[in-house]
Each structure stands twice: as C-alpha cells, then as structure tokens.
Amino acid sequence: MQQTWNDLSGHLADGGHVLAVRVYYEDTDFTGLVYHGSYVRFFERGRSDFLRLCGIHHAELGAGLHGPALAFAVRQLNVSYLRPARIDDVLEIRTQLVEARGARIRLLQRALRADELLAEADVTVAVITADGRPTRLPAHLAQRLENKA
C-alpha cells in the first residue's frame, strides 16, 4: 500500500501556492549560508508542486496523456538575493501566476523566513513539444491553471 502525504506538495493559498522547505546542510556553502543555486532548486519544487495541485502533472504531460508529449522549459529566470538563510531555517516558497499566454507561463516566486523576504524570482517557463518547439498548453490544462491562480 502506498503512503499518501497530503501536505508534501504544500497548499494553494491567496491566489498562489505555498511550500515549506527546510534548509539542510547540503543546501549551504562553506560559510554556512544557503548557496545561491539552492534557491533555484527550492523555486523549481514550488513551481512543480503548484502545477501538481492545479492538476497539471509533469509525468502525464511527458507521456502524452493530454495530446502530444509536452514538457516545461525555463526560458528566463531572474533571481534577487536579499538576505541569507541558514541551516535548519524553514522557508516558505510562495509561487504566484503572473500570466499564461500562448506557450509562456510567467510566475513570481518568493522565499521567505517567517515574514522576511530572502529571495525572489521572476520566472518565464515555456511549454514545449518533445522536439523542443514551443506550443500552447492544452486549453483544459490552461483553464485549470487560471482557476487556481
């Protein structure tokens, strides 16, 4: 029997998504602060779980269960690092849909410790076919995204 973890994917709230992430030793650099690349991984988890809770699953897209096989590719990622996080901190990764137009999905993501903003990212993701061409997200999936945002 497979265990279900209801809160593993975070939750939808305030027109977006919230995911708790604990900072582990592997996320830090030699100074004991969170390595800048770790925020990129935290943001990726937030985006993936936001989509999952909207009913858009990477595995289903890749398997072609909604038409041709599709994937998401980060087209642009602008990150601002404002304050450091440290080992054992619990961060909230907040993801908010800015717009979904054509083959592009733009999101604003923030990493917070309590109410303190540590880092934020403006992310543009492209919907692509198996051969790497941009394409629109199927209408029924785009509607799911818009309904949860």
Automatic annotation (TrEMBL):
<dbReference type="InterPro" id="IPR006684">
    <property type="entry name" value="YbgC/YbaW"/>
</dbReference>
<dbReference type="InterPro" id="IPR050563">
    <property type="entry name" value="4-hydroxybenzoyl-CoA_TE"/>
</dbReference>
<dbReference type="Pfam" id="PF13279">
    <property type="entry name" value="4HBT_2"/>
</dbReference>
<comment type="similarity">
    <text>Belongs to the 4-hydroxybenzoyl-CoA thioesterase family.</text>
</comment>
<dbReference type="InterPro" id="IPR029069">
    <property type="entry name" value="HotDog_dom_sf"/>
</dbReference>
<protein>
    <submittedName>
        <fullName>YbgC/FadM family acyl-CoA thioesterase</fullName>
        <ecNumber>3.1.2.-</ecNumber>
    </submittedName>
</protein>
<dbReference type="GO" id="GO:0047617">
    <property type="term" value="F:fatty acyl-CoA hydrolase activity"/>
</dbReference>
<keyword id="KW-0378">Hydrolase</keyword>
